[in-house]
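User: My advisor, Dr. K., asked me to get a structural model of this assembly before our group meeting. I'm new to this, so sorry if the format is off. These are the inputs:
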Amino acid sequence: MRRLRLLFLAPSVAVTAGLFLVPLAIIFIYSLLTRGAYGGVQLPLTLESYQRFFDPLYGLILLRTFWIAFLSTAICVGLGFPLALFIARSESRRGLYLALVILPFWTSFLIRTYAWMFLLRDTGLINSALQAAGVIKQPLPLLYNDSAVILGLVYGYLPFMVLPIYATLERLDKSLLEASADLGARPWDTLWRITIPLAAPGLRAGCILVFIPALGTYLTSDLLGGSKTILIGNLIQNQFAASRDWPFGAASSFILMAVVMALLLALLRKGDDAVL
Amino acid sequence: MTNILELRGVSKRYTAQTPTSGHTAVDNISLDIRKGELFSLLGPSGCGKTTTLRLIAGFEEPTAGEILLAGKRIDSLKPYERNVTTVFQSYALFPHLTVQANIEFGLRRHGIADIAKPVRDVMDLVQLTGKESRFPSQLSGGERQRVALARSLVLSPDVLLLDEPLSALDPLLRKQVRAELKALQRRVGVTFLLITHDQEEALSLSDRIAVMHAGRIEQIGTPEEIYLQPATRFVASFLGAMNWIGPVGVRPEVTNIARERPNGSSVVHAATVDTTTFLGNCVQVRTKLASGESVIAELPRHEVRPFDPGDQVHISWQPKDELNFPEPRE
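Assistant: The format is fine. Below is the predicted structure of the whole assembly, which you can bring to the meeting.
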């Protein structure tokens, strides 16, 4: 029995160790080494890369990244909760709506982000249409700014907010909602005092699933934000590509990861309290 | 006595999703519930009693008929606009709120300013004092039921609806809680409308009972009337055991059994003993008539195993104990 269990666990343990822990260890070692003249790394060991990160310039980038990830998550909550509620309450078409939420995953995220570029750019569909209709003379600056990045993040991660919220709402005991109305609560009161608190686990899961990838994003900010919007993800990518400063890139990755871990732990601990 | 709740020709039909799926859950029922009484809707599952409760609570709207509460029509009002509260079968306590917050919930929704005293009084009434800050998951089944009662009673409803209030409790607790429930109802004087499929529960608790079957009311009456003078064959069969000899029904507890043919004005049949079962407080003897019909006689305990399978016996009863239903449905 035990041997069989080990046999079944072995592949996932091998994948986790080989493809996750080992690269992590490599990145950690890189972050402590010195930058090579033509990229790569060399001895001696140093903490210089970590010290460099405390330059206000990088602190600002980290703050901006948090702010944009936070805004995107908040907008996803605002859009995702009503959508999940609507799907959970629709009796017969539930499957169809869920399929529609998942449908965008069938196309590559890169292609979908390019599609947004075609929509938003100065000669794009939206600006051309508005100009043709005579609403505007000059094209609106829709692309290459923070709003475009947030739009792209919300668009990309909204399903990750909708699905966990839907899962908790679908399980919600309907007699609790009836009991609330029975005791005199109007629909908004029931939503606020019963539905939302009981959907908290789904909301929390959705926020984690949106906020954390949004923190590490670089594709969306690169394509929709242009050169004006540098987020921590772009910073890290740059260190490994253009700047060829692998130790600093590795150190930045570790700092981001540490912050994410701290946040996750805080959120999970809060979750435990709510259960009691 | 004044009627607090009246149902007049109330029906609930579910429209068909497919040509065969539409059905009538409640079929033209009329009821008068008197102020302060404990009234039971009794019937098997699927008889429409739960739908009737949901129509009164406002979770569903009737497709025909009128519901009047304290003389006013309420059948199209929302649940939060009716002075009727419900104790749900699952109790439906809010799991994220404490006992105290569960009980305060309704008072706060009604914008009542001074809630401390009514909450304290009702917690005292159902003996929950000291459990204020517990969560529902930390309570026993009996305690949860009392929170559900307190939460509904604190609003002083015109009618308190109870949906199978004892079914979630374990059998040992059930009889004790049954007695407490009746005592509680007498003390607070609130009209209780209880839904149950348990005939013993209905008989022991109720001032009056309505027996429901297939969406209709078969009979309304006191427990004695329903048990001793059932109006239909269904009511006779559903409340307590019944021996059927053609269209005639006789209760096992008034059926006598003897080896000798009894004298007098009794109705007598020859029979063969089938099985004898010891039930603790009585002994049940199952016999078979020459016609093949089974007749059960219940004897006092002191006559333990007086008959063996295959014994030739005479069963008898007094003509006054016969119940006649000219058109047997089975």
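One thing worth pointing out at the meeting: The helical segments of chain B are 49-57, 99-109, 116-125, 141-153, 171-188, 199-205, 223-228, 233-238.

User: Perfect, thanks a lot.
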